[in-house]
Amino acid sequence: MSDAARSAAPTFSTEAWSRNAPLYEAIRTLPFNDALADGTLSQERFQHYMVQDAHYLIAFGRALAIAAGKADDPDGLVQFAEAAKVAVVVERSLHTEFFTRFGIAPADFARTQMSPVCHHYSSFLIGTAHAEPYPVVLAALLPCFWIYAEIGRDILGRAVRPNPYDAWIDTYAGEDFHEAVRAVIATTNRAAAAASADERARMHHAYTRACQLEWMFWDSAWRLADWPV
Ligand SMILES: Cc1ncc(C[n+]2csc(CCO)c2C)c(N)n1
Q: Where is the catalytic site (predicted)?
């Protein structure tokens, strides 16, 4: 590829976003997110979501820590080690703020295992983080950041306020979070630019799988899904 062609080539993130636009739209219009925005989401459904998210955040933190260990430069190491810490900080804030406010007792959490979808998404992230090269690991992690940033802003734009879920909405619509997401997009694009064609194809595959699992995570909370046997 000539230098001119290379600089005109779309970034990984632009390509990934446009290829998965229908999937994003399917997430944006899920009944869970509509009900979150208009404040009618039942406490039971939000409780299911929060308990599963607490499990998910620890798995996500582990996957980020593995990504940190695979980083190809010190900036990436710091970026993902810091993000791993943030995932655990967010998980703790679920316990200290949200669980109390929305009526989840420590014993309720202790006896609730990962749902099938949470288990699948967590296993996918940790398995990918261990088995795949750095660019593919970043592609698997990116939808978690990017979709939440977009959904957070979308819900903020149409939210009926005051809303019982204001604190959740504000976390993901806030500028601090969006700045971190832009940095993850930039690092993923840099990693993609240095990746082989085969790795780049695997990046797209991992990105789409994570988007599907994001959809399934919200849908699972809406259905109050549990293990069938
Ligand atoms: C299923 C699910 N997917 C994504 C997020 C969003 N999220 C979780 S941790 C983190 C950044 C931590 O460094 C982000 C963006 C979530 N909460 N739950």
A: 214 (proton donor)
Number of domains in the chain: 1
Atom 18 of ligand 1: nearest residue by CA position: 53
- Report if residue 46 sits inside a domain: yes
104 in a structural domain:
yes
Q: Report if residue 229 sits inside a domain.
A: no
Q: Write out pLDDT tens, residues 202-218.
A: 999 999 999 999 999 99
- Expressed in angstroms and rounded, the spacing between residue 142 Cα and the centre of ligand 1 is 10
Q: Which domain holds residue 112?
A: 13-222
Sign of CA dihedral 147, 71, 180, 15: negative
Q: Which residue has the tokens 């970026």?
A: 79
Atom of ligand 1 nearest to the CA of 172: 15
Separation CA 37–CA 180 (nearest Å) = 23
Distances (CA, A) of 58 to 43, 52, 90, 94: 23, 10, 9, 12
pTM value is 0.95
**C-alpha of residue 3 to centroid of ligand 1, in Å:** 37
Which residue's CA is minimally distant from atom 9 of ligand 1? 87
> Residue 115, CB half-sphere, CA atoms under 13 Å: how many?
23
Residue 137: the pLDDT is 99
- Structure confidence at residue 7 (pLDDT): 60
CATH number, residue 180: 1.20.910.10
Q: Catalytic positions, please?
A: 214
In a domain, 127, yes or no: yes
Summarised one tens digit per residue, pLDDT across range 21-67 is: 999 999 999 999 999 999 999 999 999 999 999 999 999 999 999 99
| Ligand 1 pocket, CB under 6 A | 53, 56-57, 60, 83, 86-87, 90, 144-145, 148, 214, 217
The ipTM, to two decimals, is 0.94
